[in-house]
Amino acid sequence: MTPKQPFVLVIDDYPEDIRGTIELLRAEGMRINLATDARQGCQRAQALQPNLILLDVRMPGADGFAACRILKADPQTQDIPVIFLSSANADAERLEGLVNGGVDYILKPCLPMEVLARVRIHLKLSSRRARDEASPEPETLLSPEEVTLRAAMRFIQANLGDLPELGEIASKAGTHGKRLSAIFRENLGVTVFHWIREERLRRGRELLADSHLGMQDIADQIGFRDAGNFATAFRERMGVTPTAYRLSMQARSDGDD
Predict the structure, then answer these.
(1) DSSP class of residue 160?
(2) What domains lie within the chain, and their CATH numbers?
(3) Whole-angstrom Cα distance, residue 224 to residue 217?
């Protein structure tokens, strides 16, 4: 039986800028599909199930990072390797790409042979991983709203200490503020801000139990203005002070030992 050709989805608002790369991939026997914005790319990834995605970072509307969050929030696309393409040679942007689920980051203008080499590497790694993790469990199908919700929650959890305004949070999940607010209410029964507050306090409980960080350090990490503000919110929600909670968790851990 002839091996199936690898299928690569390219998401780039100016695909002509990487025309040489696309032509080389095709010449090497790979099937290519093009999308010119993040929304179209996510829809095609879900429908076509490519083996790998080449994703431009800087696009109008939702950028490549937002697209990657959406892809990684959807069980149907979360395992597809994503290679970011960007003209920005910035360490912070490289790190953001990897944190958001990318497997690699290539600078533009791209050398077609370099892209081909990296595509081959990640196709091979992905194929090996798929064999190792083969499972009879069926995929969970999510609605577009559930995918957006997961993407927003993922961004919030990764940025609790320095969250932007609602509109910016929404754009990171590929939507707008009013729609994101409706999605949270419809799916969770709470506002975005209520969920953020609960998530900050949940993370605060984890840090109190599992670390020796001081109260100000914890407040900084989870987005409270200062230690006093964190202590007040924690006591209102939990009925005890953060210090009392930490002591009780330490006593429980000592008892388990």
Answers:
(1) G
(2) 7-132 (3.40.50.2300), 144-256 (1.10.10.60)
(3) 10
